[in-house]
Specification:
Blueprint: H1 14-36, H2 43-48, H3 55-66, H4 69-82, H5 89-114, H6 119-127, H7 130-162, H8 169-213, H9 221-231, H10 241-257, H11 262-270, H12 274-284, H13 292-305, H14 317-326, H15 330-370, H16 377-401, H17 406-417, H18 421-425, H19 435-454, E1 459-460, E2 463-464, H20 465-482, H21 497-503
Antiparallel strand pairs: 1-2
Helix pairs in contact: 1-8, 1-15, 3-8, 3-11, 3-12, 3-15, 4-13, 4-15, 5-10, 5-12, 6-7, 7-8, 7-14, 7-15, 7-16, 7-17, 7-19, 8-13, 8-15, 8-16, 9-13, 11-15, 14-15, 15-16, 19-20
Length: 504
C-alpha cells in the first residue's frame, strides 16, 4: 500500500492529470518549435544547435542533465538505507565540476577550431586510431544506454508510485519514452536544450517545494535525527574505514566519469564561447547544495515516516512521502503535483540528452566512419533520428524486465565509462601519450573492471571495480608514454595557455 503501511489508496484527480498532461504536451510543442528554427539539415545544427547556446540555456541544460532520476530516487533511496553517511554525496556532485574544469575549457577551444560534433571526433583527431575511436564509442554508447535505462526505470517508479498502481510502471515507461523521443527527433539539440530550460526551472522549483513539505513528516529534521539515533544508531554514526574508501571511490568514479558524459561534452561543444562555459560551471558549483542535499533530507525523513521499506522498494521513498503529503491538505496535493512534474523533468531531461548523444555517436562514429563515409549531412541526420527510435524501443523492453536498483545501475554505467577518462584527462595535455598506450590501457581497464564485477568482486577494500580498472588503465598509459617516441597528434596543434586565456 502506497503511503506507508495502512495508508489510504491514492491517485491523482482529473485536475492534476490535466496539468501533467499539458506539461508533457508542451514538451512536444517545444520539439516542433525546435524543428521550425533549424537552419540546415547538418549534424552541427541538429546535434549542437548551431553552437549558439548562451549562458542561461547552457547552464539550465547542464543542470537538468546532471541532476537526474538517480538524484531524486536513487539518492533518496540510498539515504534511506544508510542514513547521514550519504552526506558525502554532496562531494560527489562537487567533484564533477572539478572534473569539467580539468579539461573542458581546452576541449571547447579545440572543438570550435576543428568542428567536433561527438566525443569520438576529438579522440579520432587526437590519436588517429580507428580502433581506439571505435572502442571508446562503443563504451560510451553502452554507458549511456545503461544510464537511459536507469531513467526509464525511474519514470516507471514515479508514475506507479504516485498513482498508487493505477498506472503500471510498464505503461508509464512506454508513454513517457514515446513523448521523449518524439520531441528529441523533431528538433534535435534545440528541442532538448529548450525543454531542458523548462525542465530545469521546474526541477529547481520542485526541490524547493520538497525542502518545505517533507521535513514535517518526520516531526521536523531535528526530531527525525533523534528518532533515527534510537531506531538505528549506525545511520547517524561515523563510517568505517572501508566505507570511507568507498566514498573516495565514488568521488573518483563520478568526478572523472560524469565529467566525460558524452551528452555533457556535446553541450560543451554547443556553447557560444569559453566565457559562457566558465560562467555556467561557476553557477553549477552551487547546485549540489540545492539538489543533492535536499535529496538527502528526504531520504533521512523517510526513515522515520516510512520505517518498513526494504529492498528495491527503498527507491520509492520519495513517491511514498509525496503520497502521504497529498492526503493532508489541498495545498499539499497541488505541491505534490509540482514535485511530480519536477521528477518527470529530471528524468526526461537526462534521458533525452543521453538519447541524442547515443544517436549522434552511432551515426557519425560508427555508421559514417565504417559504413557510409561519403554520406550527406541530411542522410546522417535521418539515420540518427531512426537510431533514436530503435534505441528507445530496445531500452523500454529491457527497463520493463530488469529488477536492478537505481544506484546499482548508476555504478554499472561508470564502471566502463571511466575507462575513457585517459583519452581526455591525459590526451589533452600530454603530447607524448600514444594511441597504442591508451588503447592497451583501456582494454586492460575494461577487462579488470568487468572481470571483477562478473566474479562477484564489485569492490576491493571498498574501491569499485571500475576505479581499480582505471588505476590499471592509467599505469599502462604512463608506461606506454614513457617508452614511446614523440606522438604526433592534435595536442601539437592545441592552443597555448595564453591562447586559451584570450578566448575565455
Amino acid at each position: 500500500m502506497l503511503g506507508g503501511e495502512g495508508g489510504p489508496p491514492l491517485a491523482f484527480g482529473p485536475g492534476a492529470m490535466v496539468v501533467v498532461a499539458l506539461y508533457l504536451l508542451s514538451m512536444v510543442g517545444i520539439g516542433w518549435l525546435g524543428r521550425r528554427r533549424r537552419q540546415s539539415d547538418s549534424m552541427a545544427d541538429f546535434y549542437l544547435a548551431g553552437r549558439s547556446m548562451g549562458f542561461g540555456v547552457l547552464f539550465l541544460t547542464l543542470y537538468a542533465t546532471q541532476y537526474s532520476g538517480n538524484t531524486l530516487f536513487g539518492y533518496t533511496g540510498t539515504a534511506y538505507r544508510i542514513g547521514f553517511q550519504w552526506t558525502v554525496s554532496i562531494l560527489f556532485m562537487f567533484s564533477i565540476i572539478v572534473g569539467y574544469l580539468l579539461f573542458a575549457p581546452r576541449l571547447v577551444v579545440l572543438s570550435r577550431k576543428l568542428n567536433f560534433i561527438t566525443p569520438g571526433d576529438y579522440i579520432a583527431n587526437r590519436f588517429r586510431s580507428p580502433a581506439l575511436t571505435l572502442l571508446s564509442t562503443v563504451v560510451m554508447i553502452y554507458a549511456l544506454a545503461n544510464y537511459t535505462l536507469a531513467q526509464l526505470k525511474a519514470m516507471g517508479a514515479a508514475v506507479e508510485g504516485l498513482t498508487d498502481g493505477a498506472v503500471s510502471s510498464a505503461h508509464g515507461i512506454i508513454a513517457l519514452a514515446i513523448i521523449m523521443v518524439v520531441y528529441e527527433t523533431l528538433g534535435g539539440m534545440r528541442s532538448v536544450a529548450w525543454t531542458d530550460v523548462i525542465q530545469g526551472v521546474v526541477l529547481l522549483t520542485g526541490f524547493g517545494v520538497l525542502l518545505f513539505i517533507v521535513p514535517p513528516l518526520g516531526g521536523g529534521l531535528s526530531t527525525a535525527v533523534e528518532q533515527i539515533g534510537r531506531m538505528d544508531p549506525l545511520k547517524v554514526g561515523a563510517p568505517s574505514l572501508e566505507v570511507c574508501n568507498t566514498w573516495v571511490s565514488y568521488i573518483l568514479l563520478l568526478g572523472c566519469g560524469a565529467a566525460i558524459y558524452p551528452q555533457a561534452i556535446q553541450r560543451l561543444y554547443a556553447g557560444r564561447s569559453v566565457r559562457v562555459l566558465k560562467r555556467s560551471l561557476m553557477v553549477m558549483a552551487f547546485m549540489p547544495l540545492t539538489t543533492t542535499l535536499i535529496a538527502l533530507v528526504c531520504g533521512v525523513v523517510g526513515i522515520v515516516a516510512l520505517p518498513d521499506l526494504g529492498g528495491a522498494s527503498t527507491d520509492q521513498v520519495l513517491p511514498r512521502l509525496c503520497a502521504l503529503i497529498m492526503t493532508q491538505s489541498t495545498a499539499g496535493y497541488w505541491l505534490v503535483v509540482v514535485v511530480f512534474a519536477a521528477a518527470l523533468a529530471a528524468l526526461m531531461s537526462t534521458a533525452d540528452s543521453a538519447l541524442l548523444s547515443m544517436s549522434s555517436m552511432f551515426t557519425r562514429d560508427i555508421y559514417q566512419a565504417h559504413f557510409r563515409p561519403h554520406s550527406t549531412e541530411a542522410e546522417l541526420t535521418r539515420v540518427g533520428k531512426l537510431a533514436s527510435w530503435l534505441v528507445v524501443a530496445i531500452l523500454v523492453v529491457v527497463a520493463i524486465g530488469t529488477d536492478k536498483s537505481l544506484i546499482r545501475l548508476l555504478e554499472l554505467k561508470f564502471e566502463v565509462l571511466i575507462q575513457v577518462v585517459p583519452c581526455f584527462f591525459l590526451g589533452l595535455y600530454w603530447k607524448r601519450l600514444p594511441a597504442s598506450a591508451v588503447l592497451m590501457g583501456m582494454i586492460a581497464g575494461l577487462v579488470t573492471a568487468l572481470g571483477l564485477t562478473w566474479t562477484g568482486h564489485a569492490r576491493l577494500m571498498g574501491f569499485h571495480a571500475g576505479v581499480v580498472g582505471l588505476a590499471v588503465n592509467f599505469a599502462l598509459c604512463c608506461l606506454g608514454a614513457a617508452t614511446s617516441g614523440r606522438a604526433h597528434s592534435i595536442a601539437d596543434r592545441a592552443p597555448s595557455a595564453g591562447a586559451l586565456a584570450g578566448q575565455s
